[in-house]
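Form 7-S
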Amino acid sequence: MIPGGNWTHLTEFILLGLTDEPALQVPLFIFFLLVYIITLQCNIGIIVLVWFNHHLHTPMYFLLCCLSFVDAAVSSVTVPKMLVDFVSEKKTISFAGCAIQMFSSFLIGGSEVTILAVMAYDRYTAICNPLLYPVIMSNRVCTCLIATVVGINLSNALTHAILTFTLPFCRSNIITHYACDVPPVLKIACIDTSLNELLLVLLSGGIILTSLIVILISYGFIIVAIIKINSSEGRWRAFSTCSSHFVCVIIFYGTLIFMYATPSSGLSMTRDRVVSVFYMVIIPMLNPLIYSLRNQEIKQALRKGIRGTHPSR
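Output:
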């Protein structure tokens, strides 16, 4: 603790952003604006597509809508503020705004991790227990699973936001990031933050690890079940039902593993900013594109919607 209690009651923070190069501000603004527009259009498009096609009212597409909602939300937590900062001289965020952004990032980002695990369990049930699938993945079960996802991540988000923003800050109000993430905020605290860092590993790391274990076990059973299918056509049909999800999992967890498993260095904060852009901004745009390009039912519903919009074609 600081002798004499020389703590500062901060009312705002300064975000350093992705770069301080003036020449890059406008190109980055244009790039992230386009990414954000595509992200919203694609994710909202999938939700609307599923909503208006009754043959897509299944647990698989209900969970896909949940993922699309989360992707649109996680991008909206950080990108609008980032865009404003690209064209502003003073890149500030209020104390309350920073706390809300951190809370939202943990809630929505954690929900994406756990929804991917629920989707893996859904695909395991559909392929390994097809006769019991309607019972195991009923509407009530799906609703309970999503409620559990929200409850777990709500508790995690509240814990980190409360513990972080009840700390005294005295070193600086400059956050070396483009958003209010826990590690850069903890760096400007006056007191020892070992407890915060430990809880970050135990709680958030536990959610990520548990979700990954569920995904790995589910795909282990899926692979065994697919191998046992006699016909190549049957194997391909079974694999195609989970290929889009599998690609999304590889991209998402590959990014997280790269971020947290690589050795720290003097450039670790810069690296973390770049990598976090990928999983908080780029991946939410890629997920709906992957499902749109690889999922036959989504493509058929999309073609049907286009023909309905242009009946003369």
